[in-house]
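Q: Rubrerythrin, please. Structure only.
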Amino acid sequence: MTVVLTNLSVSTKNIRLFLKKIIQNQKIHSRWLNTISFLEHIGSRKILATQSGFAVGEMILRHASEETRHAHFFKRMSQRISPGTCPDYQIENLHCGFSAFLYFQRLDGMVLKNLNSSGMKGKKRSFLSYLYVTHLVEERADFLYQEYDQILEESGIPVSLKAILKEEESHLSEMKDALHQEDPEYKTRYAIFQEQEKKNYLKFEQTLLKSVGID
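A: Structure for Rubrerythrin:
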C-alpha cells in the first residue's frame, strides 16, 4: 500500500539529492542512520512516557514496541555501514541531530498548543496529542523512507526499508481510524497541522542540504 500525501507532500528532489550525497561517505551515512535510530527511539520513549497506566491498550503497546524495534534496526544498519562509528546517540554521532530533535519537539508543541486552546485536558488531551503527533511523524517517515529505500536499492546498498514501510503504513491507518473516532474536528484540525508540519519539515530539509554542501 502506498500512502497518498496531500498537504504534507513536498517535492522529492531535494531529499533525493541529500540522500544520494550522504551514501557516498560511509561515516556520514552511518551517522544519518544513527540519527533515524535516535528519532525512532525518541518516538518509543514519548509513547511510554505519555501513554501509561491502566488504560493502555494493545495498540499503544504494539506501537511502542515497533518503534523500539525500528530504532534497533537503524542502529544495526548504522553499525553495518561503518562499524564502530556511532556507538551511541551523543551529538557527535548524529547527523544534524539537534535539528532532527527540534523538528520532533516543534510538532509536540504545536499539537499541544492547539489542543489546549480547544479546551482539551487530561487523558483526552494526552491521547489526542499522541495520535496527532504520531500521524504526522509516520506520514513524513513514509515520505522519507520510500525515497531512501529507492536510493539504497538504486545504489546497490544491502539495506531494505520495505518491512518498516509496511509497519509505518499500518500505524498511519490505525492513527487515522482512531482520530476519526476520538475527535469530531479531526479533518479540520489535521489540515492545519499538516500545513504547519510541512513548514517545519522544510526548515529541517534545508539544514540537511546545507550539511552536505547543497544550497
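A: Brief note, in case it's useful. The radius of gyration is 17 Å.
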